[in-house]
């Protein structure tokens, strides 16, 4: 019995020694992957351009560039890059492979293969490996968040409204906010007078002809079969329900709203979408005819297909 116990003890010790030997001497490939919602060219931009790298390579925070160590691309070709990372005075290079996602050809998978022993991977990791692996994971987080990547939460929704009352006029640029309020007041009063059901949605869009003149478009969403008379200056327009629309939520000074339009335009370009009509503003905040310093809550909407 005692001899058997000794045998088992020696066997266990031998197995543990063998496992320890394997863990410190046998190289294995460990792969970190990031799923990126962009085409191959757009994904390569995130990995090649220094301005984009600084937004996701740690310690970048929520897309805000920071610098703690040096990272650069030393070699690049379609679908393959080599990163050089200098940390604590030492340098290490990492190959990165970019491939199309087999489940969605419009998306890509970014793979970081690192050859390590089990001991170095889980017990005594190289800080270079940790920084590079965590940065690749952060690339997925950054590119899959419209708030981080474009600056605003952007959603794809379906248009559900049926029709709108619409009016437009040209005015001086300095008077555009006042004129917008006058136009919306006219539409709301007309809807009340004609007993047209008004949903409370107020929409504005403007088009600048030059530095001094602007065309202001105002609209309210309604549910009615009545057709306004041409003499009223108000047009009833159908809204194509069931079509796609990009919607960006915004809260802040009204003067910054043009940046939201720019973000939607970039999103449309990145995902190869085509505008179905002009983008417009839909207000959550009460009132209209806002001044640049007014704080507003609104949605910028962009019908697309």
Describe the structure.
This protein has 305 residues and is an alpha+beta fold. The protein has 2 domains: 26-144, START domain (Alpha-D-Glucose-1,6-Bisphosphate, Chain A, domain 4, 2-Layer Sandwich); 156-304, Alpha-Beta Barrel (Multidrug-efflux Transporter 1 Regulator Bmrr, Chain A), CATH 3.20.80. It is 33% helix and 38% strand. The strands form 2 sheets. Strands 6-11-13-12-8-9-7-10 form an 8-stranded antiparallel β-sheet. A hairpin with a 4-residue loop joins strand 8 and strand 9. The mean pLDDT is 87. This is Bacterial transcription activator effector binding domain-containing protein. It comes from Flavihumibacter solisilvae.
Mean pLDDT: 87
Order of helices and strands: HEHHEEEEHHHEEHEEEEHEE
Estimate what percentage of residues fall within beta strands: 35-45%
Helix content: 25-40%
The level-1 CATH class of the largest domain: Alpha Beta
Rg over CA atoms: 29 Å
The first-to-last residue Cα distance is: 80 Å
Globally, the shape reads elongated
CATH superfamily grouping of the largest domain? Regulatory factor, effector binding domain
Low-confidence region ranges = none
Write a brief caption for the model.
With 305 residues, this protein is an alpha+beta fold. The chain folds into two domains: 26-144, 2-Layer Sandwich (Alpha-D-Glucose-1,6-Bisphosphate, Chain A, domain 4), CATH 3.30.530; 156-304, Alpha-Beta Barrel (Multidrug-efflux Transporter 1 Regulator Bmrr, Chain A).
